[in-house]
Specification:
single chain, 11 helices, mainly alpha
Length: 256
């Protein structure tokens, strides 16, 4: 396990460094968001080539790669032809003369660190030999499917709304967004809990819990909901929406 973990860490280091160079050429750090999903695809591909294959590893590689490719394509299309994401633009202005080193360390290296933590179930699946599918596989796959659907449908509904809305201050409040302010984040967290359940019966499988705990913490407390909602702190329509709508778990909206 230690050797594969080290090799994966080196792969991630090379991967995020490459994307840092891409960001310098493009003059925008939000390419890191595209790189996020693709990084997990790269990990799956590396393990597929270097480790013995089993039904559980094939399933995990397939599901993670499907998620990673969809997310990368969605973010690429969303950002195409637009200015750099406001979060990265703010950092660019705040970091001043230390922009390059802080970008590399605080955006790309930090992203690589979290990528390594979240990829632990993928590594556990890749190291498992002759493991057959079981009830954990079925339950985990169903949870993954629900999570993937929430993320993909939520992203699609928001993209359609964004293209058609008449006022920049309008807030998405229909579809899945009627029941949770962040259906895409809820979906991403849920699908990683599904991946964890798939690998739980494997040797050292419980260590895979680090993955969903990490992504849950990041999206709920760090780079997800807090940073995004801070943008709308002075938007009355969003504040009204916030009072009525669950932040994360899908729930019926509160009555006004």
């Amino acid at each position: 396990m230690a050797q594969v973990l080290f090799q994966t860490a080196l792969l991630i280091l090379a991967f995020v460094t490459l994307w840092f160079l891409v960001s310098l050429v493009k003059k925008r750090n939000d390419v890191a968001d595209i790189a996020w999903g693709l990084g997990f695809v790269a990990i799956c591909f590396y393990l597929f080539l270097t480790q013995p294959r089993s039904p559980i590893s094939a399933l995990v590689y397939s599901l993670v790669s499907l998620w990673g490719l969809r997310l990368a394509i969605h973010i690429f299309l969303r950002s195409k032809g637009k200015a750099e994401d406001f979060r990265y633009k703010k950092w660019r202005e705040e970091w001043g003369q230390y922009f390059l080193i802080r970008s590399y360390l605080q955006v790309y290296i930090l992203q690589g660190f979290f990528m390594l933590l979240i990829s632990l179930p993928i590594l556990l699946a890749g190291l498992a030999q002759s493991q057959h599918l079981n009830i954990f596989t079925v339950i985990g796959s169903l949870i993954w499917l629900i999570g993937f659907a929430f993320e993909a449908i939520g992203d699609y509904q928001l993209s359609v709304f964004t293209k058609n809305k008449k006022n920049k201050t309008d807030i998405m409040q229909t579809g899945l967004w009627r029941y949770t302010r962040h259906p895409n984040y809820f979906g991403e967290v849920l699908l990683w809990w599904g991946i964890f359940l798939m690998v739980l019966p494997l040797p050292n499988g419980f260590w895979g819990i680090i993955s969903p705990l990490t992504i849950t913490f990041l999206l709920l407390k760090v780079s997800g909901i807090p940073m995004l909602e801070a943008k709308y702190k002075d938007n009355p329509q969003f504040q009204d929406y916030k009072r009525r709508t669950s932040a994360f778990f899908p729930l019926p909206p509160k009555r006004q």
